[in-house]
Structure formats: structure tokens, C-alpha cells
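Check out one such.
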Amino acid sequence: MLLHLSISQFTLVDQLELEFGPGTSTLTGETGAGKSITLDALGLALGDRGNGELVRAGAKRADIHATFDISAHEDARSWLEEQEMDAGREVILRRTISADGRSRAYINGQPVTLMQLRTLGEQLIDIHSQHEHQSLLKKDTHRRLLDEYAHAEAQSAEVRIHYKTWQDQYRRYRKLADSAEETQARRDLLEYQLQELEQLDLKPHELEELESEQRQLANAGDILNGSYQLAALLNGGEGDIAEQLHRALQLVSAMPEQSPALAEVAQMLDSARIQIDEAGSTLSRHIDRFEMDPERLAEVEERLSAIYSIARKHRVQPDQLPELQQQWQQELEEIGAPDALDKLAGECERLEQDFRKAAGKLSKLRTAAAKKLADAVNSQLADLAMPHARVELALTALEKPSATGLEEVEILIATNPGQPPRALGKIASGGELSRVSLAIQVVTAQTSRTPTLVFDEVDVGIGGATGDVVGKLLRQLGERGQVICVTHLAQVAARAHRQYLVEKHSDGEAAFVALRELKNGERSAEVARMLGGEATAQSLAHAEEMLARA
């Protein structure tokens, strides 16, 4: 509910402070006094577009604050919490427009985008006027009103959830399907390459062992020839190392006196003789067992050639092949099984069925409520001087399902007999549109979640008894919430819970708009003026009678 509206330096307004309460409030005054300025300022606070021309002449900027009580508005509090803004009992919307056209928006003092301001504003107030921002011209409003009237909000929310889940999964399916051919080609290549490495079957440390064996087999002749020469040198007969060591030991032993140094030399020579004997024995066994095996050499070289060839093919070192095989195996597992696309397609079909089932239930609720809502609105239109108008709610199947269901909801109207129903914005005049809005709001008031309704000149083109009906309907709406109405009709003003007078003044240099709440006799005088232009005894008496009857 709107509690307070502060307007500063806006068009003809210097400074204006307004307090609002529950029920129906009317704004009245002479033609041209600036009654709609208040609603224009409120619209800016709710996110309407503005420009520097709206700033009062000579001022640097216009500043508008609107304070709302949201203690009973769960949706607004939830939205504020989602946006990480303070969601106490009250919320303040602020809009500033500089003379150069720059605009800033705030919610509870926190800078926000115009879209955020508008999103919250639409939850707090529904403005019905002859301007293009009229919510009744939006098909989204038609669907919302029908769903609220059908008590289908929960089903509508379920449909949105099913649709999002289905579409999220479908996007994953399309992404996988679009790359399916490329993915399959990569899978085939990986499987072929892995099969090649698996057939190679390279064992741990096999490469090092094969290279060592290859070097030995390839140099077998030189190794054997050198081994024979070494054997002859160690223990091959006259003059070999063993014989030389033996003579050296004899010389040491023949010394007449054995000094400690000579004893140590004798010990080392004896140890060397033992080592040479063991080396000769080991070398003999080596020569005895050594074989030249050309066939084995061919096998080893063939095996090494296969390893080197695959390594070159994949541009890695031979010892990196096991690591490469592991990488390919991991990539193949990440790509998934070939039937993953089929499984995902099946999941999408199941989710679509769940969505269509929920959307079908919503369609039935909408269909059942559409005629009832149209009949109720048409009944109200007959009382609002539109006896020939006929409203219907058209449910048109969508070519593609959407998050809102399987059909588009649109309110159509025929204002004259014999005319086919058409879109509201194409056939209804401004005054007719306002009265249609009023009729719909009266019918849907018990199910509407919007706490504040604003009507700008809903009485255009009507008067007399019909004006009294409009006044009754607006007061009826005010009993359930908050209604603010700009009116020219005394019948409407008299029915309101409170009345504000808009006046234009001039100090000789500039004009400015003032607004104040009327009390007691002031209100009678204003209603009398609206009845006849001048407050006579007769018009005052009539005004007091109307106020008393209201």
C-alpha cells in the first residue's frame, strides 16, 4: 500500500508531500489544474521513462520518493530478498532526473537499474489510464488475471518449473546432437589408437631392456674377440699378468730383510693375484656361455622398430607411450558411451511429457474460468454505460509451448453489436479502456495480488447514474485494498473515503501546483463545484446529501 509520496521540482510542482491511507482516494480540481501530474510523478517512481523536460524550470533536478507498506506483500518481500535488499515492513522507491536528462533509481537507498525499479513497481501498483503503459494492453496481464481468477497460480508455477527443466535438458541434448558426428569420429579414432597400443603391449622397463640387449647382440663379434684377448692377457701363458705377479711376489719374498713396507707390498700383490685369478675364471665362464644369435637380434630389432614407429607416428618419445595410452583411455571415458545421445533423447521426451501433463491441467483451469470471467466483466460493463460491449477471453494454442503453458491468453472486446471481438488497444477508446479495466478489477479484486490500483479519469464520457455506479465500484474496490483515482465526476468523488484537491497557483513569475486533503466543509464545497461550477446553497445541500449517502 502506498503510504507517502514526495515530489520535488517536478514540472509545475515545487514541493509536495502526500500521505495516503487504505480505501479509495480521489484527486479532483479544475481542468488543467495538474491532477495527472501526481500520477505522472508516481509513474516515474515506479520506473516509467522520463527526460530533462520534466524538471521544473530553473531547478537542477526533480526528485520523487514513494513509500510503500509491504508487510502483507509476500511477493514483494521475496523479490527484495532475492535482490539482497532490505525487506522490512516498508520500502522506498526513489527516482531522480537531472535537467540534462540523466536519471537515477534507488530502492531503499540502494542504486538499482530502471528495470529493477519497474519490476518491483509492477508488483506494488497497477496503473489504469489512457497512456501507453496501461497494463491491460499487455497479454501477460491478461494471462495473470485469468490465472488468479481461476486460482491457478500454483499450477502455473509448476508449469514454469517443468518447462525450465525440460528446456535445460533439451539444450544439453542439442549440444551433444550437434557435435555427435564429430564426437563419433573422435571416439572411433581413440578406439583405433588404443587398440594399436594394446596390441603393442609395451611392458614396464621393456624398452630399456630391449635397447640393452640389442646393443649386446649387435656387437657380439667384437665382444667375443675382445674377451679372448683379455683372457690371454690375464692368464694366457708366458708373460701374462698372472705370471708377472707371481715373479713379483717371488722377488719380495727373496728379500733378506722384510720391512713393514715390503710386507704391505707383498700383501697387496697377493691380493691382486687372487683378483686376477677370479677375473680370469669369470671371463672364461663368460666366453664359454657367450653365443652369437642373429635370429634373436632380428627379433629384438623388429620389436624396437615397432615401438619407435608408433612413437614417431604420435610424435612422442618411446618411453611416453604408456602415459599417452592412459590419456586416451581417460578421454574416451569422458566422451561417454555411444548410446548417451539416445538416453538423453529419452530423458527429454519424458520431461516434455511431464510438462505437457502439467500444462494440460493448467489449460483446463483456464478454459473453465475464461467464460465465467468474461460473463462477470460483461455484467459490470452493462452498468458502466457500455451495454453493447462484449468481452471475451481468447485462448489460442501456441505453435511452440512456452513457460506459460500451451496457449496464449488475450482479452478481446467488441464495443458495438455485430462487430467481431478484437484486441483492446485496437478497438477500445481511452475512456472505454479505463472502464473495461475498472470492470475487470472489480471482478478480479478478490483474487488480485496488487495492493494498490490507480485509475486516471475512468469517468471520461460518462455521467449521471453511470457515474454513480463507477463511484460505487471504486469504493467497493477500496474496501478490499487501496484505490487512487483522478476524476471529474462528483458522483465518484463523493463515494471516496478521502478526497484531495489539486490547485494551480501563480506568483506572477511562475506557476505551481499544490495538493491538499479536503476536510468536512471543504469537501462539500468541492463536490458542489463539481456538480455545477459554483457553490450555491442548493448545490452544497446536494453535495452534503451525496457525501452522507456515500
Summary: Residues 340-383 form the longest helix (44 residues).
